[in-house]
Amino acid sequence: MSDVVSKEKNEQIQEFGEVVLHEKSSNTAIYLLSVIGEIEGHECLPATAKTTKYEHVLPKLAAIEDDGEVDGVLLLLNTVGGDVESGLAIAEMVASLSKPTVSLVLGGSHSIGVPLAVSTDYSFIVPTGTMVIHPVRMSGTVIGARQTYDYFKQMQDRIAGFIAEHSRVTRERVEEMMMNTQMLTKDLGTILVGQQAVEEGVIDAVGGISDAFEKLYELIGKKRT
After folding, report:
1. Looking at residues 49-54, what average pLDDT do you find?
2. What whole-number distance in Å separates Cα of residue 181 and Cα of residue 124?
3. Cα–Cα distances in angstroms (integers) from residue 219 to residues 23, 102, 214, 224, in the given order
4. Quick check: helix, strand or coil at residue 124?
């Protein structure tokens, strides 16, 4: 039976980057969910691209919320960003979970990955982890009309508002970092590395996987009391 369970876990990790971890001494089950590569939205990306598909993540989050055996969620992030609407939908879903949640930014959490990183109850970033905050971009043909620019502005307002609501940084500072012209040679935006993300109030603390687990167990313990 244990071999069957182990095989199922390995298949979950290989297919979706997710697995349920059980801590026997405290009878705790943590759902490990990863957001890797580019967040794929309504359009399919090339088969050669490493992607996280939002149509997989949203039902999984709903199942986690409805599963009485799952005590908490650990979100691992190493993403370049991707589809803005889809990424924001995942972030809103994570933020609305009733179970304790902790995120850990590894290589990077760029663009729409920033709202994802702050959507949890507590967030960590490794010392070499990076976060890129920049204005909303659109690929493909864009109609140069006022309505288009209004849409971009509305989307940026939604992102800045979400980040400010779920972290210690102000909305004004988020917008300031988005429009920074000093850091990226050919583009607007700000790069935050490790401790800088904490100092700006975007991320709660610098740490690694052991810190993330420790904090999540702490939050689960508080919820149980």
Report:
1. 68
2. 27
3. 15, 9, 9, 9
4. strand
